[in-house]
Write a structure and sequence with these properties.
The chain has four helices and four strands, in the order E-H-E-E-H-H-E-H. With about 130 residues, it is α/β, with parallel strands linked by helices. It has one domain: 2-Layer Sandwich (Macrophage Migration Inhibitory Factor), CATH 3.30.429.10. The chain starts with a strand and ends with a helix. It binds ligand LSPQP3PW. The site of ligand LSPQP3PW has 12 residues, from loops. Pfam families: CHMI.
Amino acid sequence: MPHMAIEYSANLDAAVDMDGLCALVADTMLETGLFEIGAIRVRAFRAQSYAIADRLPQNGFIDMNLRIGKGRSAEEKKSAGEAIFAAVSARLAELFATPHFALSLEIREIDAELSWKKNAIHPRLRGK
Ligand SMILES: O=C(O)C/C(=C\C=C(/O)C(=O)O)C(=O)O
């Protein structure tokens, strides 16, 4: 399944609605047409401990790691990454107006021979 894991520094708690950010990422992934709805998983993890750049207490980060199955072209993967990065960047425009925020995204492919999956959501959603 496409897994999006978002890590963020705990000092962003008040500035970013993480549930809303997860929903935005899931919606954007779906809109690319490259991911099946029943396969999308997005979650956010709060990093309580961190050291960012010059260690100013205002410095914050969000790092997004997307793991997807093989089978999509390089162009498709690139356009998906660009769509997600643009949507999240727009949502976080206020943070980019400060000199204290860093955003990153990486897409990796899952090795089909070394991964296992079983999904009871697909049958329910594929029938719709
Ligand atoms: O192939 C993968 O492991 C990832 C994937 C889809 C996975 C599912 O549909 C699933 O786990 O139910 C993908 O589309 O990249």
